[in-house]
User: Fold these one by one.
Assistant:
Number 1:
Amino acid sequence: MKRMIFKTRFILTAALAFVFAANALGQDLKSATLLTKSEQYDKAGEMLKQLIQKEPSNSKYYFYLGENYLLDYYSDTISNSLTEFTNLAKETFQKGINANPNDPLNYIGLAKVATYLNDLKTADEMRTKARSYLLPYKNIKKMTPPAPDYAFALAKIAESFIKEGEVDTAAALPFIRQALKIDAKNPEIYLIAGDIYILAPDGSGAIKNYSMAQYYDPKSPTALMKQGNIYVRGKNLSAAIPLFEEAISIDPNYAPAYRELGELYWRAGRNEQSTTNYKKYIDLSKGNIPAQTRYVNSLFYAGDYDQVIKNVDEILAVDKSRPVMNRLAGYSSFELSAKNKSEDYSKALGYMEELFKALPEERILWKDHHYMARILVRKNQNYTKMVEELPALESQLAREKRNLAAATTPAAKAKIQPAVDDLTAKITALKANISNADKELDRAFSEFEKVSQMKPQDRGVLSEMATQYYFFRRYDKAAKTLARMIDPNDVKLEDLMQVGRAYYNGENYKTADSVFNDVIKRSPDYVPAYLWIARTYTKLDPDYKTGIARPKFEKLIQVAKADSLKYDSEMGEAFGYLGYYFSSKNDYGKAKEIYNRWINLNPNNKEQKIRAYNGLGVLELQAAGNEKTIEGRLAYLARSKDAYDKILELDPNNASAKNQLNYVRDFEAQVRKGINPNEIKGVISDSATKQPIAFASVRVKDTAAESRTNAKGEYKFEIPQSSEALIITAPGYQAKEVPVTKSRVYNIQLEK
């Protein structure tokens, strides 16, 4: 009998111990989930791992741990790695399935992971698997699993359709409605329902469900905070504040509410209150680095970049194991430099270099590559200026070296040598800077390319790439990038034109011509394409020798004349080229016809008429120079004078016309005297080949007096009295300045 009593007592004690242990584990699970809701993901994770260690067969622990990983990732998408956290979650959910294959929750967890990774097929398969363990119910009391668990699983299936602020409402709502039908008192289900409705978007539905969650769990601040967030989204800050404050009154240690209040007060411009709440948030976190990281995130999104950098430096000083914090510091340093219009991006680059050094490639985000690219291009904004400066310095150095070589005494050489040394040092340093900039820009565009690969549908990235390629004169790359932006099923002509112009600017004239002709094939009346084709051929014949651009400009006029007023700018450019071309060939009659057509193109376009009259004035002056008889010269000069008078009628302050008119009058005066003391002539030729340069410009410095060489490189014209220098230019050659002496013959050689 005693043995029986003892045995009974033993059984009872054992049973009670089991009950107490189960209750203790249940309380621990509740505490862990509360830590998760309080965003104490590290602590929650540790507690859940301990529960698993104590009871490895309990599949629910694995589910909550997996969810903790996913929530941890989304609490800090800047610092955390999606790959790392989804892998952790996936591994944990699978362990839960191994512990209990009949528990639907971990299949739902795998569906969530698949949804986050955009693997919708696997997500659907996992939901179907979960549903297979939730057989249709007939009698709630006899359900397996029990009704509350059944309903919760359905709610979690509904939740698995949420991804990055979007939800498939058609798929999610039937599950959440069924869940509430089975268990209408579960606050967790109402919270999930609210999360779905707010993304629907259905603000009233969200508030209704969050209110029900609060009703069934009045001691939880979560529902209040979620309601507050609805008002924040609607920019109704005054309505949100009381809700956050009520959440704090329910649980003064609920840290997320202080963070939300801190951000909200910052938006409202109440900086002191914002700081107070942020400090409280940090204090409650008790030095919790992840919490401080989330605080830094909020500072970044609030645009408080100085504080971001300060806090990151403090975190890294304490915890070197968090190199991802360099990400926020790098982003903030860039934004701060851009905001302050600073040219110094070295600090931002330093943070990003540390980030790239510390993290494996799979943890580098597309934003990291984007910011790195933007930092590098901003850091080298003066690149084009340096490239333009180099030839001028080299030309200056060449002159000083010639002067040094021509110096005949040591004293003269000593006077010139410092300039040579200084220019040499400047050029060496400039070349080194250009070389370094080239390397950094190469990397910048490599980073842009990585962004485009990671976000292939983002046209904004391609547009930014093309813009930067253009800015840094990498025109072929700009063209190819612009071409990638074109939808083959919806080709817009202007998009093609952009590609063609990029090739044109990159001097890839053959490809540019091909693109512009493609435009014409698609739209035979598209005038801008004809213009750019003509411009392309002008570049292929810069000396006007072959005249290959002539038929292109004539075709342009033919197409554009159907609406000459609309296309007067394009037609004006065509007339300008043709007039110039025929002048260079000494075809006076054809050139005059062209200029007169230009004059009559658009009576209301003053600028066009001025340019046309100027062309006619130069033509008549050129003809006067070529004429042998005094009477003939006077006739040409009279018509030239008339052209410049017409310009002054249109624009009385036109300085160029006034100068030209004075020159014509001086010329006329000399002709009437029968003498020409200011006539000069000569031949312009290539210094290397000695070949004549046709249509080179010989201009009197600081005047409009100008002549052009003929096919033999010859020129002859009258220069104004007291002229000091001639400026000789030709396409593809370095300009040259020649002093005017008593000589009347100036044979000049130009260098390429």
Number 2:
Amino acid sequence: MQINKKTNELAGSLLGELHSLSNHLSDTLIEQAARYLQRSSGQSPQLWETANLIGNYFNKNEVDEETLAALKNMINRIREVQGEAAEQSQDATTVVFGTSGWRGVIGRDFTLLNVHKVVRGIIEMMKTDTFLRETGLKDFDEVRQSGILLLRDNRFMGERFCRAARHELAAENIKIYDAGECPTGVGSAVLTELKAAGSINFTPSHNPMEYAGIKFNPADGGPADVHLTKIIEEKANAYMRAGVSFTPSSASYQQLLNKVNAAQMFRDFVEQKSPVFDMPRLRSWLSDNRNDLFILVDNMHGASRGYIQALLGPEVMDELTRAGAIRFIHTDEDFSFHGVKPEPGAANQEPLIEALRQSGRKFTLAVALDPDADRIRFADARMDMDMNRFAPVAYANLLARGLEGGIASTAPSSDFALEIAKREGQKVWETAVGFKHFRQALKSG
């Protein structure tokens, strides 16, 4: 296969280039890369592993600009070859919807053909009585008319995978709403505003650069529960079986396509429907305190880019910017996430906190997001607060303001929020691992 030849040729080229830079790189890096690139007979070079190794190296070690450019070029070429593999591969996989969707490595199991199969599996699931009962839609014709929302994060090949989904939806004459790059939570709000039948979201959340993923949400914006994901798995894996004929759709979708301004819709949603955020009051406070304020937002090159600006509005953004009160970093297009795992962890938060300290401002806030912005970490100049601590504090604040409601918690979550709920006489649900298990608890009220 031509792609295997390219993979082997690239592996040899990369190893030669790393050796040529030996005066600028550590022996350990070159030795580790050699183990990934020089494989025994019958084994393919581990290109993505090499890309992560290189990215991790230049983030933890000082390298000169010329060497850095050479290392980044290596990652780009790895991505290009893996993209060709994703376009050309006919290899099947086993689809498993994990904590919240199906995730896979681009060019290995997450390929263009397999995306077609999974999206068709989602469509077949939407024809079932189980889905129709879940969403309150009377038949598949109503699914067609209600439409499906497509959204994605900034991942490599994201638009290409979305195009595959458009072709599959068009083959069934389903109306398509396309939000483009859009945070996962924003997509849930937009989905309910559109009154669409569901959403297909291309994101693997906070996973490293080599991953892509698909999440499906039914009409109410929450994650599909196990009853629906099991059907998707069954339908998609039926197309994966050896000997099963499958032709990807190439149906024209232009007449069914509706572009969505998700940022504006989200701003309207928050202003008109949120019981939590008083946006006029918040904007006024930010404006009044702009000279004592410093907010630093790490967009991690992801789908959150531009959404905070849209929420605050151009007038407030202009005031904050001129006062040096707000700054956004990692807003450029970078499919390798400047070489780090794109998660709002403590290590990625450290330079943000240091920048807050250096600002000398009275009020400080660091906000770090993952590529689809469903994981957020906050800090000020004195305290770093991870997500498992922030959620209980936010929950307690809502209860103190008179907004009541129970808590659904999955295994990795903090028990702190559960204890607050119990103390305040609120309902508590403890579920198995995965957002897909939240659905029944949330729907129960």
Number 3:
Amino acid sequence: MKTKRIFIFAMCLMMAFAAVSCGGTETNGGGSDSSFQDSTSSSTDSDSAAGEDSVSDSGSSSQTEEDQTPSIHPSSAVADLGEEEADLSFTVEYNGGTFSELLADGKAVPSSGFERLASRLTLKASYLKTLSAGEHVFTLVTDGGEVEFLVTVEIDGINFTDTERVKKYSVADVGFSVDFGGGTPAKITVCGAEVGGGAWSYSDGRLTFKKDYLETLFDGVYDIRIFDEEGKYENCVIVKGMEINELLRFDFDAFSSKINGFGQDLEISEEANGIDGNSCRIVNQKSGTLLNIGEGNIDYSFTEGEKYALSFELKLEEIVEGTSSVSDLFIPVYFKTAANNADIGFIRYNKTDGLYFTAESKCTAYSFTEIDGIWRFYAEFVYESGFTSFELPVWMQSSFLIDNIQIAPKTGFMTILEKTETEVAAGASEDLVFDFGEVSVIGASIAGETLPEGSWSSAGGKFTLDGEYIANLTAGSVNKITVYTSLGKQNIVIRVNKYSLKITGETFNYALDGKDMLFEVQTAGYSLEEAEISDSRGTLVKGTDYLADGASLTLKSDYLEQVVLQEKLNIKFAEDAVLSFEVTSNKMLFVDFDSFKAPEKGFGLGFVASEAEGRDGKGCCLVNENTATFLALGGNFCPMTFEAGKSYTVEFDIKINSVNFDNFVIEGNSCYMPITFGTGYDVTFIRLSDDGQGGIDMKNETQSVGTESNIPVKGEDGFYHISFSFVPTEECTTLTFDVWMASDIVVDNIILMRK
């Protein structure tokens, strides 16, 4: 037993001695990596050291007690921010000391900027990109001492060094730290439009947007892109009229979507050259959720009673009709509530109509427009206390790109131009004005190039194209101009006639007053009498549709009565000289089932329709067995806008073949057809009742926004003529002609007129 203890003691001594001979025991946080050793050191350095010094360098126990100063390898490194992976790693010998902090140029490096794992220290690329070009002295501090090391930042192009991407304008300049490695910005864009030096300045790594420029802008969100000479860019945002935390934005460039609540159960990838820079590709095989705000997902706080706007851009790649569990629903937009969903609206798709949007009860305004294959969605809503999470599901099997997803307080509304093409005579020098609504017009471009300074101006949302610029456009050219606003972009087209042809008149709108319209034509030497005049339906008949004498053109009232909304006319002279112009009409809808067909959307919903003999010519037979909609005007049905305060009149002929007086909506109620903009905005009620003699009594009763209605009388042909007028309010958007009783009817000559 004694022998055994002696043997064990001897073995312990031998192991201890061996440890000292090999350089001592490893201290807390120690270790080294030959790949990170300082290039200035070599084996000869330690060989030349004498006795005690050699022991100290090796990390002996005597050094640990006396000197705990850390060391780092390598002592210098280069951060090339042009590399995809710009992390820098170092090996640290702590020599028994404990880490305290890391400094860069005397300032503390945030904990998010570096990572420590045992003896490894890593400076993250995201932090290094906040440093300016040049040398930076780092200091690693422990309770045993400190060690310095050098990081040289090399920038090839642009480096956004500011820690904040979103800043608010109030009453002063707004600046961002941006490093170009000694260079300057190649160009700056705001909302897609290039802006000149009057808007910004750059000096000593600081990009400053001037107060005088920012003051001219409407409240809103302004996406800024800062470009270098190679076309690379960094982006940031200035908000005006809201707080920074009121903006939720995913642009897949600087504003990432890598967050819980985005793209649930969807295949997500990044597209480098997408809709607007980087975009997100969404592939939906079954059903998923694009956005989920609240309930542990995306953290964003809505304020009760505040009006918000949701917007994004979408490019459809593939979609399979019929794969939604609900009709043609592609992307519903809604809030959840304790009882059910509070619907804002639905993006829909079918092969006939393509993509379209139907607004629901919580939507206060919207637009869904397509420009060059890109759909821009915009919808406003008011947040209510009963709302819980906000959701944006995807219900159809599909593949699409999406970009610039944004939720922010409502700060204006962009008017979508009804007329986007204008024809001018060669050499014409009159200004052209386009009204884009409650927006800031930032700039404009043509063929990808910024419009020259002085060629345009803006004020209060109106964009004016200077007459002198127009006069210098090439004869016969088609000029596509993109106008950039704070709420999106729109295209306008200026067509320049090959010849000095021009038409003028007191008005180009027919007011349904039975009067002819007179125009003066600048014919450039051609004969107006010998010219051919045509519209979308064919060639006009001289003497019947129009008169031509010298330079005077008269459109006859009988012809103008056939114009609905607008009609484009072409005057074709000799040598293919063509002058085009448009005539509008206060007649917003005309359906006679002969030359003028019923709208593709909004007519005969829930009916079985067939051709029938009308009051004059053809009519349409409609049969329903339950509630149905005879006609829906406005919204996403038959597209039209009702202007608040204006007076409108509707007329149509109706024949009742049969009707079931057992009302489907309100038992015992005689209301056959309520014509209404919605609850509280009724126009008129058409009532049917049994006259007790085998016939029908019909009444036409004026309601809240209605102003007058006729007393319908049955004609010898069995038709009643219905007429009523109304004055809509701002809340009146979609006028519906619902049918509450099962019936068999014939309708003809549907007319909507604006007085």
Number 4:
Amino acid sequence: MEGNISNSVKAQPDAGRIDLRRARFAAGALVVYRALKQDGLVAELCQMLGHMDSERPDLFRIIDLYSSVGYRLFAEGTGLKGYIIDKLLHTESPFSRAAEAEGEKCLTDSMAAAMANDLGQLQILASMRSEWVRDFILHLCKEDEVIQEAVMKLPLWPDDGTGMKDAIAGEVDRIKVLLQNSGSWPDCAGALAEFHKRCGSGIFSRYRAFVWKDGTFDGIESPDPVRFSDLISYELEREDVIQNTLHFLDGKPANNILLYGDRGTGKSTTVKALINEYLGRGLRMIEVPKGQLADFPLIIRQLTGRRLKFILFVDDLAFEDNEENYTALKAALEGSLESKPDNVLIYATSNRKHLIKERFSDRAGLVSGNAEDEVRAADTMQEKLSLSDRFGMTIVFSSPDKRRYLEIVEGIAEKRGLCVDKDRLQREALKWELQYNGRSPRTARQFVDWLEGQLAAYPEDNC
């Protein structure tokens, strides 16, 4: 142990200190990727380098920052190089926004020079090794053997493994491998530009699906993986949704859609399947909770001008008669002075065709002699009915009849490879729908879930 400490202390002052000063300069010299310095780990790394390069280094503060950086890397499951590559790809910058729109054409002389600088500096920062920091700490405490022994027990930062998990595979993996293996990151500027042109910029290059939450896009790590091939029946209803979405992705005129009908018929599942089918076509989906519909203008402004296509998804839409959120949705659909961009559509699901609750008293007001009733009651009634009319397409999902319900049950059971007598399957399925939620695709799936569990528990019941 003493020999290792002695060697580290002797080797540190010259080569190690030069490398650390280069890393500190690199962190301060970022221009296009300046926003990276706001990242928690990068900020702590910069603080640590600053303390190490000061005239009176704070030993215990350096140790604390070293350990904190290590904690963050272990938590992310990657090394420093992999972490910086990930942030480089998914932190929005002037370059990534320009590249999303123009690809390599954005690399004008000035942008190319700025990118050459930043990519070179980031490669220096990413090459920083925890051994250098530990040797520097050993040099600081060279007269305290007890502290030296404790420092030698500090764990090194993790090496690069599989890296952070991305919701968009393929394109991300390819560009990460390119940067990991490149000896000159500035030479990768063109490949980065094409990556952003295909996959978008910032958070939209990492995730495919989002929830609008507290004024920001919250990426969903594991969106529902459902595909259209997983769904049974309702092909005609889904075909209208698919064709409209394809027109949208092809840059042709397309409509906002209201999917309404009985509960459990696959309205929401149909919309969610779109993102898995057409991710490669540049489609992203943002779920907007009903309580935040007033944020529609803000959301649309943030999406305007992007190359990607966005579906704003509002699930289970309905309003009480005293709610005002529906006015924001009406304006977003049609009627606002601020036009909706061509890269945004609104898809909503509801169990009601008329989305705002209407009372008999509203219609009674048309001929009422009650002084408390509204004078222009007809105007109020028309306002309540006009919201659903503003969706360009309304697609109805009705509860299946007995034959269709059993076809769905049989189709799901077949896809799962369940071996069960057909008569028994149908008999049990009909008992299930009577006992529980009535006939619907959701009920069919819940029944097959139960049946699969039963067959696993009692394999002798398999055919």
